[in-house]
Amino acid sequence: MVPNGWEKINFEKVARFRNGLNFTKTDIGEAIKIVGVADFKGHSVLPTLDSLDTINVANRVKDDDLINSGDLLFVRSNGNKALIGRCLFFPKVEGKLSYSGFTIRGRVTCSTVMPSYLALLSRSEIVKQQFFKNGGGTNISNLSQQILNDVVVHLPPLPEQRKIAKILSTWDHAIRTTEQLIETSKEQKKALMQQLLTGKKRLINPETGKAFDGKWEEVRAGEIFSTRSNKNHNSDLPILAITQDQGAIPRELINYKVSVTKDSIASYKVVEKGDFIISLRSFQGGIEYSRYKGICSPAYVILYPKIKVTDAFYMYYLKSHLFIQAMKSRLEGIRDGKIISYKYFSEIKLPNPSLEEQQKIALVLTAADKDIDALDSKLAHFKQEKKALMQQLLTGKRRVKLEGAA
Questions:
Q1: What is the DSSP string of 187-238?
Q2: Are 85 and 128 in contact (CB under 8 A)?
Q3: CA nearest 317: which of 203, 204, 218, 182?
Q4: DSSP characters for 142-156?
Q5: Full DSSP string of 369-389
């Protein structure tokens, strides 16, 4: 049902669509900045044009191949189907800017439509569902101009478009601000890890009220960690996924579905809470930590501290850029994609500060993680609230009050 005062329209009546430029690296001609699929990420508006690639286009770029202020850009095709149909809005463009052949530009042609409002519609579930429906369902592999032309929406009058866009822009600002805070917090934590995990920055010892001092002891990893291969279980423990971002975690908590047979599970190793795991991806992401008891593939190497340590200190250290680089240097002969044996790992030198200093460093880094987690939760809340509000405002289920209206 069309809300009172609104109009039912197809996109083709209010906008014109055009595929992007196809080019090769060997082309010789005009140099121009170009927006590609990789630039979309989670953005609704590009924060900067500085990071865009510059390409050479055979001959001269036509005016109709440029992005102008008020244009929209859609992902046309990509290896990741989840990205197809994503939309960027360009409120203001200064200088020449073009777009790749894997994208489609949208340009508003109707004076009764705000480009920013059309961009809001294009990012809504109302339009996304039509992309999938008209493009072959979840197996959509390509967004076409025809699919875009056929999109049907209900369009309010311009004053209402402006008010809705203004309300939702407030949420966009809150989301962008929180995203920037998260990035800043992550960079600060990274710098803090670099200082604390190398001993360059020493924290205050609560026992003395003075900074910890003295050079850190360096020992072979084999003096701190031992390995075990316990397969004594009844297959009743949760199967753990070994991930780079969440460590060892039960598969059902991250909806990780890989079918395994009962016979193969029998060969799985037991992982205890507080164990560390060497994975095939340790050269990229370091060594993982487990907060859960469970079982994992026998391909992994299970480590456990054989002396008294603060688990969280080594949890951070063994995931640090510092350790990963040291490991790559020490184990240069082992190629990425091969498991690092305990024998090789045991020879790597690790710092072993006092237990008190380990605890203090772990507390500071844990607090930094909690701050980031709180911001992540805040961001998720803002996004969910905006999504719910969009569903109400863009369908007319909730009407906005216009200035001067009775």
A1: HHHHHHHHHHTTTSS--EETTTTEE--SPPEEEEHHHHEEEE------S-SP
A2: yes
A3: 218
A4: ---HHHHHT-EEEE-
A5: HHHHHHHHHHHHHHHHHHHHH
Residue 198 inside a domain? The answer is no
What per-residue string of b and e applies to 330-362 under the rule 16 or more CB within 10 Å gives b?
bbeeeeeeeebebebbbebebbbbeeebbbbbb
Digit-coded pLDDT (tens) for 114-147? 999 999 999 999 999 999 888 766 667 789 999 9
Strands 152-155 and 7-10: antiparallel
Q: Is residue 161 part of a domain?
A: no
Out of 155, 173, 196, pick the residue that ends a domain. Answer: 155
Please name every residue paired with 99 in a beta bridge, in sequence order, or none if there are none: 35
The arithmetic mean of pLDDT across residues 154-160, rounded, is 96
Range of the domain at 110: 7-155
pTM of the model: 0.83
Residue identified by tokens 């020879």 is 347
Rounded Cα distance between 189 and 195, Å, is 10
Asked if residues 63 and 93 have their Cβ atoms less than 8 Å apart, the reply is no
Contact status, residue 177 vs residue 379, Cβ threshold 8 Å = no
3-class secondary structure, 104? strand
The pLDDT tens digits for 71-122 are 999 999 877 777 889 999 999 998 899 999 999 999 999 999 999 999 999 9
Higher pLDDT: 57 or 226? It is 226
Question: What pLDDT band is residue 61 in, cutting at 50, 70 and 90?
Answer: confident
* Closest to 171 (Cα-Cα) out of 406, 401, 378: 378
